Each structure stands twice: as structure tokens, then as C-alpha cells.
Amino acid sequence: MSTWFGSTWGTVGFIVLSTTATYASAVACVRLAGRRTVAQMSAFDAVITIALGSIVATTAVSATTSYVEGMTALVTLLVLQVVLAWARRRWPALHHAVEAGAEVVADRGRISLPRGLTTSQMSGEELRARLRQSGHAAPPPAGIVLLEADGKVSVLADEAEAAAVRDLLGRG
What we know:
By secondary structure, the protein is of the alpha+beta class. 56% of the residues lie in helices and 9% in strands. Strand 1 (103-107) and strand 2 form a beta hairpin. Helix 1 packs across helix 3 and helix 3 packs across helix 4 (92-98).
């Protein structure tokens, strides 16, 4: 208990670097795992929620982690979150590299799920279940279905709205 509040500057520096590396790795892993992993949360929301909970729990119950070390990790994580949010707004390429955008999963009544590491990782049956949950028995014949960044499904049944989204996404 003698180190509860105390810690060396070397240890604090190590925690800042370790937290930064862990945060970056966690964001990359969640991004690669696809939206299903964090349904209804952005990758950043999921990573920060899990990491903050872990830091608080470890600091609260660990006899080997001092309060200063725990708070250093907590503050480092929150600073990283703020800096990354700012950087994503400032540089759109960074935003697209680490955060998934909306993904077309059905168009003109046909389901067409993109494949690859950075896509939804969703099966046709999972999409049909999400459509049913949103009150649609099937993709609309003239519309478009989007999987949003937070894992929600948006159904645009109106032909004009669907055409506008197609134009925005370059899908004509």
C-alpha cells in the first residue's frame, strides 16, 4: 500500500507509452473485426468504454497498480481519444482509415454484402434479421439498404432518396 499514490516518472512514462500502444492496437483490431463486433457503437466508443472500465477496475482492486499509475493510464487514454477525434475531423483520410462509413448492403431489392477485412462481416441471414427488426420483410425493390458505422441498418425505400444516396456513393 505504500505505493498507492506514489510512482516514479519512469513508470508514469512507461504507462503513457503502453496505454498509447494498447489503444492504437485495440482500435485497429476492432476496425478489422468489423461492425458486428461493436454493433451500435463506433469502434472508438467500444474501445474507450472497455479500456476505461478495465483501467478503473485494475486501479481499484490491484495491489500492484498505484493510484497515480491508474490515473496516468486513464488520462492518457482520454487525451488520445480527444486528439484522435480532432485529427479525424481535421484529416478525412484518417477518418476513413480508422472508422467505417456507411456500407451499401442491398440495392434495388438485391442483397450484395461486401467482402473483405474492413467490411461488415455480415451474412445474408443476419441482414434479413436486421431488416425484419426494422419492420421490413425484404430489401425494398427500388430502394437501398445501408449498414451504418454504428451497426444499425437504414432502409431508404423511397426511390428518390435511394437515388440521392447512390449518387453520393458513386453507385449511380
